[in-house]
Amino acid sequence: MPDKPYISIVIPVYNEELNLPPLIDRLYPVMEQIGKPFEIIFTDDGSRDSSLSILQGMAEKFPEVRVIEFNGNFGQHMAILAAFEKSTGKIVITLDADLQNPPEEIPRLVREVEKGHDVVGTIRQKRRDSMFRKVASRIVNITTNKMTGMHMSDYGCMLRAYHRNVVNNINRCQETTTFIPALAQTFSANPTEIEVAHAERSEGESKYSLYKLIRLNFDLMTGFSVVPLQLFALMGILTALFSVAFAVFLLVRRFIIGAEVEGVFTLFAILFFFIGIIIFGIGLVGEYVGRIYQEVRKRPRYVVRRLHGFGE
Q: Which residues belong to the signal peptide in this entry (predicted)?
């Protein structure tokens, strides 16, 4: 086994068989050029292609490579958390396996941590994503900053660096659903952000569908703030006041004009609008209740089937 790592690279993997060989071909020389002991921890998140066998081959070939094999698909953030628990480096860097964030940017993140920053976020420049992904990401960034009070420019970029102290605090958290960049921000004393390059995905497809992006936004809002509940309570108060004022208006109008049947469809439209607000509120409360239900069950956040390259 090599010396104790100074840098730990954490990479979640799900069906990335075509990207893994070029990833290690670019990542390994970058880490060697830094000149510090390092480890590369891959977490196979229940891949259905040959990703796991490729990772096992890497663990046999490179002494710095370790592989965590999940028993199923538990999600990107659970894969990162599992690697966090096994990492030992003073600096821990998360990186996606799709090569959209160039590994060549890693030395810049390391230098920022060595300057004294305990969390180094990144902002993707000249994004090579579709217009839909850019707009959705923009909405998530603005909404989350408003809801949580945090100040992060790009929540979707997973190329980030963390000091060991922040990682240790993250490891002490046991919630079943979380968003690691936001969680790290709550433990950070001196965060910073830098701009990094962004490339098109050369192989495979993005693992974030529209539904998963919506789920991610709900996790961010409900996992780090109660502002949505407060806003809904405020909306309920304003709606009640508006309803009372509207009822008074209709009563006065009836005395002045008399009984009339016009406006029935307008009333139906208003009724449906308020019903929509109520249903949305019930769903929002249900989201919080569902998170509480997941926590009280105390089920494992993930299940590790096997470890590769960690020694005995």
A: none
Distance CA 52, CA 142 (A): 37
Tens digits of residue pLDDT in 251-304: 777 677 766 556 665 676 677 777 777 877 777 777 777 777 777 777 788 999
Q: At what angle do helices 180-187 and 210-224 cross, to 10 degrees?
A: 20
Length of the chain: 312
CA angle 201, 203, 206 (to 5 degrees): 60
Of the candidates 225, 213, 153, the one whose C-alpha atom is nearest the C-alpha of residue 183 is 225
Q: How far apart are CA 93 and CA 277, in angstroms?
A: 42
Q: Is 41 helix (H, G, I), strand (E, B) or coil?
A: strand
Tokens matching residue 181: 């960049």
Structure tokens at 8: 């730990």
Give pLDDT, residue 287.
74
Contact at 8 Å (CB) between 125 and 197? yes
CB atoms closer than 10 angstroms to residue 152: 20
Rg (CA), the chain: 24
CA distance 84 to 96: 15
* Sequence-separated (6 or more) residues with CB below 8 Å from residue 44: 13, 14, 51, 52, 55, 67, 68, 69, 70
Extract the residue ranges of the chain whose pLDDT is less than 50.
1
Interhelix angle 264-297/210-224, rounded to 10 degrees, is: 70
196 strand-pairing partners: 124
Q: Which long-range contacts (CB under 8 A, 24 or more apart) does 261-266 make?
A: none
Angle at 175 between CA 169 and CA 176, to 5 degrees: 135
